[in-house]
Amino acid sequence: MAIHDFNAERLFVEATLAPGHEVTCSSEQVHYLLNVLRLKADDTILIFNGRDGEWQARLTDVAKRRCTLKAEIQTRPQVAGPDLVYLFAPLKRSRLDYMVQKAVEMGAARLQPVFTRRTIADRVKLDRMRSNAIEAAEQCGILHLPEVSDPVALPALLDQWDPQRRIVFCDEAADQADPIAILKQLDPGPIAVLIGPEGGFSTEERALLRSRAFTTAIPLGPRIMRADTAAIAALALVNAVLGDWKP
Q1: What are the tens digits of pLDDT across the range 98-119?
Q2: Which of 81, 77, 132 shows the shortest CA–CA distance to 235?
């Protein structure tokens, strides 16, 4: 397991990072660095861009409304995250924020909103999703950022899906009661986790999912969970059996 200093402040930047490279901070980053963290010239902070690893950077060219970050030492090299796609029926505002953050912490490489018959939210703010993903990565020492994909309807998703990537979806009517036993029967490889809406998939959607050779249904125990709770439970199970939690 990677050792990370959770007391160190981290900042996501878009710019390429290499020794001596300078990053011009946005107005929001200037406010955060100078007014929230109260950093001064020559203070250091960890920065990352999801591509070039993590770097110690020094504040330079500090003024009231501007500052620059100069990359000095790479503290951690870039590593690939789990090959895990998270598919989900969007929730409303704060619960969607929470679910996105937890999915990033669980290692999702792509976030894919999926509209179903019972989906509560009628639109998705992708910029907000990305902001929540960045915040989770900054706080948890994560080096990779997930791709945030445009929403798609469930039938269209299945029609265009790569059958080499298995979809594990949560279904209280799964054929077996033990999700771990079901997951252990699957071959290693690219995987996706699909969480349905509040109220679950419709009868037609469940039949559609079960008709595809690349889908596997798992239960999540004897209790009914909210969608955001189910997301954490399912992602934890998949990581433990098929993902990078294995020894």
Answers
A1: 999 999 999 999 999 999 999 9
A2: 81
Q: What is the pTM of this model?
A: 0.90
Please calculate the CA angle 101-83-53 and round it to the nearest 5 degrees: 70
Give CA–CA dist 115/119, Å, rounded.
6
Report yes or no: 167 and 214 within 8 Å, Cβ to Cβ: yes
Banded pLDDT at 1 (limits 50, 70, 90): very low
51 HSE (CA, 13 A, CB side): 8
Rounded mean pLDDT, 29-57: 94
Which residues have a Cβ under 8 Å from the Cβ of 91 and sit 6 or more positions away? 99, 120, 121, 198, 227, 228
Rounded CA separation 230/81 (Å) = 22
- Secondary-structure percent of the chain, ordered helix, strand, coil, rounded to 5: 30, 25, 45
> Do 210 and 168 form a contact (C-beta atoms < 8 A)?
no
SS3 labels along 96-141:
HHHHHHHHHHCCCCEEEEEECCCCCCCCCCHHHHHHHHHHHHHHHC
Q: Note the Cα 94 to chain centre separation in Å.
A: 16
